[in-house]
Amino acid sequence: MRAVEIRPGVRIRWVEVPGASPARVYLHGLGASSAPYYAEAVAHPLLAGRRSLMMDMLGFGISDRPTGFAYSLEGHADALAVALAKIGLRRSEIIGHSMGGAVAIVLAARHPEMVRSLVLVDPHVDPASPSLGAPGSRGIAAYGEADFLSHGFDRVLRDVGPHWAATMRMAGREALYRSAVDLVRGTSPTMRKLLLELEIPRVFLHPEEAPPRGARELTAAGVQVISVPNTGHNIMIDNVEGFARAVAQQRLSV
After folding, report:
1. Structure pTM?
2. Are 56 and 62 in contact (CB under 8 A)?
């Protein structure tokens, strides 16, 4: 485990595997933690040998959970940029799952010197509407903050299932709520528009049975849209071989 202080008393932490450059930085989704989701894939023969940082964003996993942090997509991206700069990393390959994909897009747009390429794993790229009882960010964002903190968190934790709950229970409640609210609100311009305008290599992984909206537009903008069979939303867990192959192949276009 490694840590870096991004402001007094506030640390981002990660699990690191040593290896060759350029480094790969792995970002988790909402309520998750990078090491439990990515460790098996990082150790896969197609990906082994590269310096790999399975990094937890503020509020999640093993990183600190400051209650005064905004937990916006921009806030997460800026905090990661500070951490990467202090570590001494520039032009890393960023792999982001779900919310981590949205943060990765914003990081590349706001701090282009930090990002060599993007691999987005079934990412959020569009705003959404909150809906009570919906899975993930839409359901969380349907609460008011006070209600979520008092009872909504416990209800969501019961409903998400044992795998997601295992990491979600480590999240700060304010972090989980505010991150979900900002994720469904999205950025301006939207994450999709930011992604389309980036000029670095970009890969968009999706479950074979759930092609992304606007796939033709993504492809026309130079985004490699790759379907991974036999997966749900957690592609890196459901099909480690398929995920590793897709991540390893994108290196050829960098």
Report:
1. 0.96
2. yes
SS3 for 5? strand
35-80 pLDDT, tens digit per residue, is 999 999 999 999 999 999 999 999 999 999 998 898 999 999 999 9
Rounded to the nearest 10°, the torsion over CA 5, 119, 186, 169 is -60
Which tokens belong to 204?
Answer: 């968009």
- What pairing do the DSSP bridges indicate for beta strands 202-207 and 223-228? parallel
Contacts of residue 198, Cβ cutoff 8 Å, sequence gap at least 6:
105, 108, 109, 118
In Å, the largest CA–CA distance within the chain is: 49
Is residue 240 within 8 Å of 221, Cβ to Cβ?
A: no
Residue with tokens 């485990």: 1
The single-letter DSSP state of residue 212 is P
Q: Residue type at 107?
A: L
Q: 222 is written with which tokens?
A: 């130079």
